[in-house]
Write a structure and sequence with these properties.
This protein has eleven helices and eight strands. The chain is of the alpha/beta class. α3 links the parallel β2 and β3. It binds uridine-5'-diphosphate and magnesium ion. Magnesium ion binds next to loops.
Length: 309
């Protein structure tokens, strides 16, 4: 019998924990037919509500339910990493507890693994129910990533993914602190089958992502998988040097021909503030990479465990 590990990151999800279990159990027969046993690994990401209690209740009823509880909120990336580290399965699947990653897709995903794929990934083809502004920026983000990064990151890709142990081990061999799993999945490669589904709305509770949270996360993604912004800063520098040179020539020639009437300080102020703005922006880009490098160099643990069942 092979083992399927289901990793479920949870942050303040007391209402969803039992529903997820019930929904997952519906696939039990199918798993049995495929000769699979399973474990659900709820990773509590420092929840402040009764999430841990709910998982413990399930664990008492069914010892295939495991709990991993963090000492504080470390973020979903850390939860997924911890789950993968602690999972024992020959196959591993990561799923959201709010049922936005439909467990009903599992049988189909498993059949592709049986056909020899190393991984089955999912992407949502619609963004129904999401604020339009968020969809707009999400689309821009994926388009930008496609341009500036060599790592394949699919538009609408979810973290809902079934993987073989071999691929999980490859991911675990990337112990970076600034984790952007969507990029890491693409980076490690392996044969991946993509399944598409229509967006499902969250069962209970609210999304944990604010607009600004997502914006910072996208910057994490860009800095983790592309150094194009650094080149952009350098190109801007060169461009402005060339521009300045042309202006100098122009001014010298004009002075030689027409003399030097004292005027033009407003234009000077405009140019100066524009260029100092660009300088600060470029410095900010360098700062972002420096900050990421700084955090990486510290080698802090990605998560801390408080309790494990
Ligand atoms: N999550 C987590 N830690 C966090 C934020 C979220 O473990 O700091 C979990 C959350 O409980 C859920 C999954 O990550 O199972 C996805 O979160 P959410 O549904 O809020 O994101 P969305 O589906 O809106 O992108
Ligand atoms: Mg969700």
């Amino acid at each position: 019998m092979k083992l399927l590990s289901v990793i479920v990151p949870c942050y303040n999800e007391e209402e969803n924990v039992p529903f997820f279990y019930e929904e997952f159990i519906k696939n039990e027969n199918c798993l049995k037919e495929k000769g699979l046993t399973w474990e659900i690994l709820y990773v509590d990401d420092g929840s402040k509500d009764e999430t841990v209690k709910e998982v413990k209740k399930l664990h008492q009823k069914d010892d295939r339910v495991r709990l991993l509880s963090f000492s504080r909120n470390f973020g979903k990336e850390a939860a997924m990493y911890a789950g993968m580290q602690k999972s024992k399965g020959d196959y591993v699947v990561i799923m959201d507890v709010d049922l936005q990653d439909p467990p009903a897709l599992l049988p189909e995903m498993l059949s592709y693994i049986e056909q020899g794929y190393d991984s089955v990934a999912t992407r949502r083809v619609s963004r129904k129910g999401e604020p339009p502004i968020r969809s707009f920026f999400a689309r821009r983000f994926y388009r930008l990533m496609k341009r500036i990064s060599r790592t394949e990151i699919m538009d609408g890709a979810r973290d809902y993914r079934l993987m073989t142990r071999q691929m999980v081990d490859a991911i675990l061999a990337m112990p970076e602190y600034n984790r952007f799993t969507k990029g890491i999945f693409g980076w490690v490669g392996f044969q991946t089958k993509w399944l598409e589904f229509e967006n499902v709305e969250r069962l209970k509770g609210e999304t944990k992502w604010s607009f600004w949270g997502l914006l910072w996360y996208s910057i994490d993604g860009i800095t983790a998988f592309s150094t194009a912004p650094l080149s952009f800063a350098a190109v801007m520098g060169v461009l402005f040097c060339v521009l300045a040179f042309i202006l100098i020539v122009f001014i010298v020639v004009r002075t030689l021909i027409f003399g030097d009437p004292v005027s033009g300080w407003p234009s000077l102020v405009c140019i100066m503030s524009l260029i100092s703005g660009v300088q600060l922006f470029c410095l900010g880009i360098v700062g972002q990479y420096l900050a990421k490098t700084y955090m990486e160099v510290k080698r802090r643990p990605i998560y801390l465990i408080k309790e494990e069942l």
